[in-house]
Specification:
By secondary structure, the chain is mostly helical. The protein has a single domain, classed as Orthogonal Bundle (MetI-like fold), CATH 1.10.3720. It is 74% helix and 0% strand. The protein contains 12 helices and no strands. Helix 3 packs across helix 6, helix 6 crosses helix 8 and helix 7 runs antiparallel to helix 8. The chain is globular and about 70 Å long. The two termini are 27 Å apart.
């Protein structure tokens, strides 16, 4: 019987071309960051790290980076905490309005971010939360929860419930069963949803432009403001640092959990 578990030359070529298409912009940005000139240029006459050292002379980028991490940590964690009961309720129970609730949870994926930004600006201003950490976290949670919910929902749907039934039959309470059986079984989906939500929150620009303030500027917003003022290799060096940090984080997650379990569900 003919086997189909190996890619043919056409499929292999297509995969390589597609991979190069995705990685080429990142490679170009990282190469431009090493330019020795005072403007964006490639190729350069000689490699230099002057623009990486220049980041230290712009503490506003470091402050914005730390604030983005702080914001993404809070937003991703809260989004996952809300996604777990939402996923368990919609995956295990049939009730009136179930489809409408799921559509409501996923609706931020269909609404343009600029529309959300304008709406959140008016709402936060009326509450007096405009530019505050609490207001930014609340808006980011709404935006990133669909990403966390999809992965958590996939884990809950594919989970074998016999272990839960066995624990209950042996006298475990619902909370003990949830804490010691359910959570460990769906942990790959929870972790993957948290990682995806963290990355989405950290990278969000369009909506955050409307609701951020000078004291709560995220890194994407700060980079956008810098580009509107001047274009120099400093932006490329900041982008390269983010790419390097992302690669390190992905490597660590792959070593600890395995990216297949986190993002694919294997």
């Amino acid at each position: 019987m003919k086997r189909y578990d190996k890619n043919g030359p056409i499929a292999w070529t297509f995969n390589m071309v597609f991979l190069i298409f995705l990685l080429a912009p990142l490679v170009v940005v990282c190469l431009v960051a090493f330019t020795d000139k005072g403007y964006l240029s490639l190729p350069w006459d000689g490699a230099s790290v002057r623009w990486f050292l220049a980041i230290l002379d712009h503490p506003e980028f470091i402050d914005a980076f730390l604030y983005s991490v702080y914001l993404a940590l809070g937003s991703a964690t809260l989004a996952v905490v809300l996604a777990i009961p939402a996923a368990m309720a919609t995956a295990r129970y049939q009730f009136p309005g179930r489809s409408a609730i799921m559509a409501f949870f996923m609706s931020p994926l269909m609404i343009p971010h600029i529309v959300l930004g304008v709406a959140f600006l008016g709402y936060l201003s009326s509450l007096g939360w405009s530019g505050t950490y609490v207001g930014l976290v609340a808006c980011h949670v709404i935006l990133i929860m669909p990403y966390a919910l999809r992965l958590v929902l996939a884990s809950v749907t594919g989970m074998d419930r016999s272990a839960e039934a066995a624990a209950r039959s042996l006298g475990a309470s619902k909370w003990t069963t949830f804490r010691r059986i359910t959570i460990p079984l769906i942990m790959p989906g929870v972790t993957g949803g948290w990682v995806l939500a963290f990355i989405t929150s950290f990278d969000e620009l369009t909506m955050t432009l409307f609701i951020a303030s000078p004291s709560s500027t995220t890194l994407p917003v700060r980079m956008y403001q810098h580009i509107t003022e001047t274009i120099d290799p400093l932006i490329a060096s900041v982008s390269a640092v983010i790419v390097f940090l992302t690669m390190i984080m992905m490597f660590i997650l792959d070593r600890i959990f395995g990216l297949d379990k986190l993002l694919v569900g294997k």
